[in-house]
């Protein structure tokens, strides 16, 4: 089974990984995992002063800060893990990866805002649920 793990390096990501580790009978190491993070682009008025190599290195460093602990977790649990990152809005970037990868399941941590909180603050989770047809397991 292909499982997409959208991660952002927050405590919610850590909780999601801990949940998966504690419930190995649900998923475990026999699946193909893809850890994905979205990196916010530098505003164009600032990025125009930087060359493409510098920008790419910056974006890769930001992504690696989030993905490194997930990679270590996967090594400890014996998971097969691929990693990826893209620039842009997290919900839209996740939807793009879902379209390209066609995962069987998306597992993500959620802040657990109320419906009113999601309307006022927006929510990556709500955006993913609205854009993606793959099943989603939310861990709060």
From TrEMBL:
InterPro entries: Rossmann-like_a/b/a_fold, Universal_stress_UspA, UspA
Positions of the UspA domain: 2-140
Gene3D superfamilies in the cross-refs: HUPs
Regions that span the bilayer: none
Cross-referenced Pfam families: Usp
Family: Belongs to the universal stress protein A family.
Name the record gives this protein: Universal stress protein
Organism: Piscinibacter terrae
């Amino acid at each position: 089974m292909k499982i997409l793990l959208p991660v952002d390096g927050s405590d919610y990501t850590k909780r999601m990984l801990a949940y998966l580790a504690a419930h190995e009978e649900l998923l475990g190491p026999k699946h193909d995992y893809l850890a994905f993070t979205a990196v916010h682009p530098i505003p164009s008025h600032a990025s125009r002063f930087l060359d493409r190599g510098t920008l790419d290195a910056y974006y890769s460093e930001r992504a690696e800060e989030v993905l490194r602990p997930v990679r270590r977790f996967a090594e400890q649990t014996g998971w097969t893990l691929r990693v990826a990152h893209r620039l842009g809005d997290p919900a839209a970037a996740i939807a793009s990866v879902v379209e390209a990868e066609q995962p069987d399941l998306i597992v993500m941590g959620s802040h657990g805002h109320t419906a009113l909180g999601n309307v006022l603050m927006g929510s990556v989770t709500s955006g993913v649920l609205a854009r993606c047809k793959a099943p989603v397991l939310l861990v709060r």
